[in-house]
Amino acid sequence: MGNYHGVYMAGGILLVECRGCNKRTAFTKETLPKIHQGNMDEVHTEKFRCSRCKETGVRLYAIGDMDEAKMWLAGDPLRNAKQGQFIVMPLYWIVHETDAGNRVYIREDRLPFYACIRGVIDGSLTGKFIEAHALDDKMARKIGKRARNKMMSLDDGAKLLDRIER
Ligand SMILES: [Zn+2]
């Protein structure tokens, strides 16, 4: 879940809520043709921009029930958490202690714990846990795939953040 195929599988409705002013919009495959079977493009790489306040940070949900979507658009919370799957997960900045010193590891998941576990399982993360925190959305969106799921030195991590903040 997290790509357009996932939205399609969840029922084909993508709900977008502005983090700035909470303006809500619902997309279907008619209004957002990218929602189709087999489209593995990540939804969070889409540049959403609020038409009201110009904010670019959004909350994204995928659901399948148009009645539920209409009620959500009218201001209701999503009734059923399972229907309203939160599809953009936080990106965590994780620091591990290794034989080569402390290293940074950036990975997306629901919780930092899961990000670490998945890293250890696929072999991309080694060493001993020191700390983890979530990167803010704006920053997270600018961190490309190449910088994720791999360990880097604290220096390289700091340079990456520097580049992004500029
Ligand atoms: Zn807005």
Could you please describe the fold and organization of this structure?
With 166 residues, the protein is α+β, with helices and mostly antiparallel strands. It has two domains: 4-86, no CATH class; 91-165, no CATH class. Helices cover 27% and strands 27% of the residues. The chain is built from five helices and eight strands; from the N terminus they run H-E-E-E-H-E-E-E-H-E-H-E-H. It has helices spanning 4-10, 66-73, 112-122, 137-142, 154-165; strands at residues 13-18, 24-27, 58-63, 85-86, 91-98, 101-108, 128-134, 151-153. The strands form two sheets. A four-stranded antiparallel sheet has the order 2-1-3-4, with helices on both faces. A hairpin with a 5-residue loop joins strand 1 and strand 2. The mean pLDDT is 87. Bound molecules: zinc ion. Zinc ion is lined by residues 18, 20-21, 23, 50, 52-53, 55.
